[in-house]
Here is the input.
Amino acid sequence: MTDEYKKGFWLTLAGVMAFTPDALLIRLTAIDTFTLAFGRGVLGGTVLILCYLIFSKDGFISALRPLGWWGVLFVFVQAASSIIFYAAFAFTSAANVLIIFACTPLVAAIFSRVLFGERIAFITKMAILGSALGLGVVTSGSLESGQWVGDGLAFIDVILLGLLFAIIRGRKQSNMVPATALGLLLASGVSFFFADFPAMAMNQWIWLVLGGAILLPVAISLLTVGPRFLPAAEAAMLTLMESVLGPLWVWMVIGENPGLRSVIGGAIVVGVLFAHSVVRFKSHASEDTGAKSIKS
Here is the structure.
């Protein structure tokens, strides 16, 4: 197994696991879409920039210059994705949003193939199909509510997320964390003009700060760095864990029941992801062993 693949896998998985309570925090914050996008954008973007200024030797502005037009595109796509993500939660259930997000691997693979010519491993294609089977079970129950506006917004966000994953992978020589920070701040700037800014209780402030200043910067940094070392489709596949675990957090804490079909379908997805990870790890281990044998 190559060190690069191993690093990418664990960083991406850590980012996904950090993101799994995000839907719950959004529900607990309980404010309008644009106020949420503004607050989280300001907090997340500011924390990312401060961390970059503290821990980076080159400085924030210097880190932006090498990103070029891909970085500019990334900023705008990140901003749009953030706002649409929160809007989707306002019109449909958390389970619906996160289940639809499971389409991200296919979209990421298509963008990577079209934009950067990256091939998709056969085992990954099979895993995507297997995941689709599990998600079909989930969707058969969760989409019966008729919440089509929220579902449509979630599908739009999937397209944007797929593009982000493809850019991160295709431009892996570039660190897109600074562009992510600017994207969050751009989302907050746009949202400022549409936000209601309602009076908030102390617990709402706690959930907003916890999600915006801690969870969001940590998870989004890991998910911006990790996929640089993985095929886009595989990196996006790991994010399917959020589609399964996110609704469970919401169900356990506030009782938004995803339904039996979501549980069964989620179990299928987890099983497919586990099997895919084992096969890919063994494959990379064999390639690494072969490379060492040739050198010796």
Summary: Residues 3-295 form one domain.
